[in-house]
């Protein structure tokens, strides 16, 4: 039977994700059919990320999975599973972009505001439900990022500024809090730095590929 804590967490996660989708849908200036298509692609990408996290969890707990595959359901995902998932998603993104010549950037451009809206609402609901002021710092971070996203709507480098601001604010926050939190995962500041490098490399590769 699902515990109350797990059920509450899932409800918060779903409500936050729906808010993220709504945030994108309201702010995007494209036609409704275009937005609906993007939302379908975002949901597909989200499912892909969740599957990669599950693959990561299986890899991390491989011995348990071999002995009892169903026992893996009781194991929570940790940051190692998240790291593996992000590696798999990165490989998938590179493959789709450069090998299959699929314009993947439009999907990510739509996914970023959904992610920001989801993270903001997740932290807000955690603060309200858990009544822990620790979440307040992250609410400030995501409020700043959402405002940046809205104010720079017509600026050509909007997403780059927002993403690099997120990297910077997370590293600054880790200096004061001692760690970085991404949903329920506690990750290393070094990991945030590596994400920044990975994102920069992807931009350079995409630019070089489009020019070539």
UniProtKB/TrEMBL annotation:
Keywords: Membrane, Transmembrane, Transmembrane helix. The chain crosses the membrane at residues 6-27, 39-60, 80-98, 110-129, 135-152, 159-177, 183-205. It comes from the Bacteria. This is Uncharacterized protein. It comes from Candidatus Pseudogracilibacillus intestinigallinarum.
